[in-house]
């Protein structure tokens, strides 16, 4: 793709709309994960006894282990959802704009 075609794609209204949607979703997912981590750290700092309680009588596994695993898995799932959307819907929208610009509709 030459510079002129790239510039046409970047200035295309559909591409601009897609870029705004992608940014909104990306920042939203980032905010959700950030809030999750902040809440986790805040609870550790303010109520450490909550995470130190054993899951069951005589168990060495505490609720903190499960909470930490949940935060990590939640982050992976959130990232996976974003990647799926970005590589699916948004990639297809970008290809559509490129086809329109190149006159291949």
Can you tell me about this structure?
The chain has 105 residues and is mostly helical. It has one domain. The chain is built from four helices and no strands. Helix 1 crosses helix 4 and helix 2 runs antiparallel to helix 4. The longest helix is centred in the last third of the chain and has 40 residues. The chain is rod-shaped, with a radius of gyration of 22 Å. Keywords: Membrane, Transmembrane, Transmembrane helix. It comes from Neisseria dentiae.
* Helical percentage: over 70%
Q: Would you identify the regions where 5 or more consecutive residues have pLDDT less than 50?
A: none
Query: What's the story with the biggest beta sheet?
Result: none
How are helices and strands ordered from N to C?
Answer: HHHH
* Tally of helical runs: 4
Protein structure class: mainly alpha
3D shape = rod-shaped
The overall number of domains is 1
- The N- and C-terminal alpha carbons lie at a distance of 17 Å
Overall number of strands: 0
* Nearest-integer average pLDDT: 91
Strand content: under 5%
Radius of gyration: 22 Å
InterPro entries: DUF485, Inner_membrane_assoc
GO cellular component, one term: plasma membrane
Transmembrane segments: 24-43, 63-85
Protein name: DUF485 domain-containing protein
